[in-house]
Structures are given as structure tokens and as C-alpha cells.
Amino acid sequence: TVSYVDTASPSAVQQATADWCICTIPLPILSQLPLDVSGPMKNAIDSLPYAASVKVGLQFKRRFWEEDEAIYGGISYTDLPIRNIGYPNYGFNRGGRGVLLGAYLYEGANSFEFTAMTPAERVASAVEFGAKIHPQYKSEFENGVAVAWHRVPFTLGCAGEWTEAGRAQHYRNLCQSDGRIALAGEHASQLPAWQEGAILSALDAITRLHERVVKT
């Protein structure tokens, strides 16, 4: 039985009852909830940190990277705090406005630095550093949006950040069925931070659950 609050009627605590539960809640959230699981699984849930990551999208008046520099898709890898710039691989030469991935930070001090900024500050910093690669930034920039995963209240981080020691101690306990509960998600896979890992984890959890139900 799961107790929950629906945002449509937050004043009432509701309950849902099922024979089995496959839980895909990110671990930084799950670790804060009361759970009826064993000590080893609870330790595994509590022990996995999530990586800091920030992405910034920038909209420009025109697709200057194509018009001025003949850049069609791909990525510019830099030694700047923004790490890299991603160019769209569609709509070539269509004219009009264009959008770039103006920054993609994953792990490291710069990720935490950008996470500590406001969204507007992240966008401004991405424009400032990006202008060192493309001087057109300053005159062509229109607006932008920024997401820092540690600030997203539904995940509190980007993806599970496993170490070899952490996997050796907790991975098996996290990925095995515990009573009537099984976890699934990129954090319960060998491919953290990737959709493929999340899908493989879900297939594994479903397969284990199916085998258990058939045997009983």
C-alpha cells in the first residue's frame, strides 16, 4: 500500500494498493520517503549520490553558425566552463531564428558553480563564454533557458554517480527484488545517465517479477 498526495487535491492523503511495486522514483527523492524495505536496500538507496549537471539553451536571431561558419550539426568541445556547444542537426539553411545547446556541464566544479546561479545568471554566463567561440553571440542573442538538475525538485540531481567501491557494496542490493518491491531506472543499471540504462533496468525488473509470479 502506497500513501500519496495528489497535487489536484493536496489536502487529502490517498492510498493505492497493489500486489507488487516497481518503483522508478529517483533515489534522492526515494531516500526521503518512509519505505518498507530491508536494511541493505535502504543503505543502497541512501548511499548513491547523484551527479550535478546543467544545460543551457540559447535562441538567436539567425543561424549564424551555418550562415557565417558553415557549421552543420556537431559539437564544439571547449576548455571553458560551458564545456561544449551543440549545434542542431536538422533544418539546415532554413533561415530565421535558431537554437543552440549553449552549455552542457556534467560533474566537476563548473557544474556546481552553474547550479548555484539563478537561471538568468546561467544564461548570461553561457552567452559570455560562448562569445569567445562565436563573437556573433552578443549581437544575435535573443533569449535562453537553463536547467540545473540538482535544482529540479522531482529528481534533485541528474543521474546516479556510481563508483567502483559503491557498486561493489550496494549495486546488487539495489537491483534485487526486496519483498514485493523492485527498483528500476538508470540508477539501477550499468549505464547510468542514459535512457538505454533505464529501459534495460525496467526490463530486468519486469522479468524478475514475472518469473517470481509464475513460480508462485
From TrEMBL:
Its EC number is 1.13.12.3. Residues 15-205 form the Amine oxidase domain. It catalyses: L-tryptophan + O2 = indole-3-acetamide + CO2 + H2O. Keywords: Auxin biosynthesis. One of its GO terms (biological process) is amino acid catabolic process. It comes from the Bacteria. Gene3D superfamilies: 1.10.10.1620, 3.90.660.10. Pfam families: Amino_oxidase. The keyword Cell division does not apply. GO terms for molecular function: L-amino-acid oxidase activity; tryptophan 2-monooxygenase activity. The keyword Cytoplasm does not apply. It is an enzyme of class 1 (oxidoreductase). Pathway: Plant hormone metabolism; auxin biosynthesis. Belongs to the tryptophan 2-monooxygenase family. PANTHER family: AMINE OXIDASE, FLAVIN MONOAMINE OXIDASE. This is Tryptophan 2-monooxygenase. It comes from Aureimonas ureilytica.
